[in-house]
Write a structure and sequence with these properties.
single chain, 474 residues, mainly alpha, two-stranded antiparallel ribbon, two-stranded parallel ribbon, 18 helices, 6 strands, 59% helix, elongated, binds arginine
């Protein structure tokens, strides 16, 4: 019904029941048709991109001799005025013009008259929306990379302050081996680094201009697609006109990257929630990132962390929504694709908020080093160190050392000792070769300091990674 498959200029003469595409129609659309069709409520967020695309297109049409210099000047002038209206909030977004593209064109025609009707030469809303949305997603990727970098810097600063602060490392949420808080934070820094790289990769792939694909088949006018691509900061024009108007991979890819990033955020958020329980008591957040309870005066709730944890749902929902919209769609454009935008916008809003809130919380949080150190030494967390000592000093096979250590843990548990306090006689009952020297590896400090392998938790290894990231993030 709203097929833009003609390259012919449309004249914006909507109003009085006339739509821009109304030439072959004798009746007005039903109210419900308009209600389901209208997208200006959300695609107004493409206004800036739409204007940029129109400016580049008009300039190219003039250079190609398709429109006159006077017409181009009038169009550029009108677009500038629209830009100002959008900036100062006076632009009239009108539902009767359906979407942002026709709203801009209708306004242009009110401002400059008939020359406005020449702007849509050699262009369709199909390549126009593909262009606008692609530019929006491209910018969103850039912004997200910046937000990820800011979060990484916050993590880096905390990690540097706590490169040697002990904490228990967990598997199965059971104390496993002592690590340092800095090491733990640097794990997230790595994740967010990969996230940023995913956005950067996606950005490279999406950086081709679909403008000039027109409705689907290309244009009969002598357009210069390289020119508009260059003007709009693209690497090159897309190479297939059908693909150009049908492709929404760029958004799917960005949402996939966003989903992964939100999943990473949710894991850190969950850890903050756990660490903030009185039972753990590992970190404190200030009043800036916590809320009170209206009934329980003692409470300090980590709402921001909980909300970051939950927002991951929005990212995955947006990815899923767009994937389902695109699945099975025949080439090329179908109006289904109008449903690509709202969820994408909301998803990036949620991601931005989450990244900023998390950066704020990371900068804000203060670890309780004493509590974490005590927990790091509890739960027989240096059992592996005992087993390793038996291998290293007594030449036992690791499996045998593992078994012996298990017996030592069992004995210590029974007698109410830690490994570090279990009397030597008890140890020697298990293996006569054990000496006083073994206690040197049974403290969490010693355990952590010994894990010097590349990427390990020894503070000097952690500091080496901090140094590497400092350079990357500079
Ligand atoms: N508002 C439409 C969208 O978001 C623009 C493209 C419309 N194209 C068409 N042939 N009806 O997809």
């Amino acid at each position: 019904m709203t097929d833009d498959s003609s390259d012919a200029p449309r004249t914006a003469k909507a109003g009085k029941g006339q739509t821009m595409w109304g030439g072959r129609f004798s009746e007005k659309p039903a109210e419900l048709m308009q209600a389901i069709n209208v997208s200006i409520g959300f695609d107004r967020r493409l206004a800036v991109q739409d204007l940029a695309g129109s400016r580049a297109h008009a300039a190219m049409l003039r250079k190609a001799g398709v429109i006159s210099s006077d017409d181009e000047a009038a169009i550029q002038d009108g677009l500038s005025r629209i830009e100002a209206e959008i900036a100062d909030g006076s632009f009239p977004y009108r539902e009767e013009f359906e979407d942002i593209h026709m709203n801009v064109e209708a306004r242009l025609s009110e401002l400059i008259g008939p020359a406005a009707g020449r702007l849509h030469t050699a262009r369709s809303r199909n390549d126009q929306v593909a262009l606008d949305f692609r530019m929006w997603v491209r910018e969103a990727c850039g912004r997200t990379i910046d937000q990820l970098r800011a979060l990484q810097r916050a993590l880096l600063a905390k990690a540097e302050a706590h490169a040697a602060t002990l904490m228990p490392g967990f598997t199965h949420l059971q104390p496993a081996q002592p690590v340092t808080f800095g090491h733990h934070l640097m794990a997230y820094l790595e994740m967010f680094g990969r996230d940023a790289a995913r956005f950067a990769d996606a950005r490279v792939r999406m950086n081709e201009s679909p403008l000039g694909a027109a409705a689907l088949a290309g244009s009969s006018f002598p357009i210069d697609r390289d020119d508009t691509a260059r003007a709009l900061g693209f690497e090159r024009p897309t190479a297939n006109s059908l693909d150009s108007v049908a492709d929404r991979d760029f958004a799917l890819e960005a949402l996939a990257a966003g989903t992964i990033s939100a999943i990473h955020l949710s894991r850190l958020a969950e850890e903050l929630v756990i660490w903030m329980t009185p039972q753990f008591g590992f970190v404190r957040l200030s009043d800036a990132f916590t809320t009170g309870s209206s009934i329980m005066p003692q409470k300090k709730n980590p709402d921001a962390a909980e909300l970051v944890r939950a927002k991951a749902g929005r990212l995955l929902a947006a990815f899923t929504q767009l994937a389902v919209v695109m699945k099975g769609l025949p080439l090329t454009y179908s109006k289904d694709m109008q449903e690509d935008k709202a969820a994408t916008f909301e998803a990036f809003d949620a991601l931005e908020l989450s990244l900023k809130a998390m950066a704020g919380m990371v900068a804000d949080m203060e670890p309780n080093a004493e509590r974490m150190a005590a927990a790091a030494g509890a739960g027989f967390s240096t059992a592996t160190d005992l087993a390793d000592w038996l291998v290293r000093e007594l030449g036992l096979p690791f499996r045998e050392a593992h078994h012996l250590t298990g017996a030592a843990v069992k004995r210590a548990e029974l007698l109410g000792f830690d490994l570090a306090t279990l009397p030597l006689s008890e140890l020697q009952a298990l293996h006569p070769g054990l000496t006083e020297a073994v206690y040197g590896v049974l403290t969490p400090e010693a355990s952590v300091a010994s894990r010097r392998s590349y990427g390990g938790t020894a503070p000097d290894q952690v500091r080496a990674q901090i140094k590497r990231w400092k350079e990357i993030l500079r």
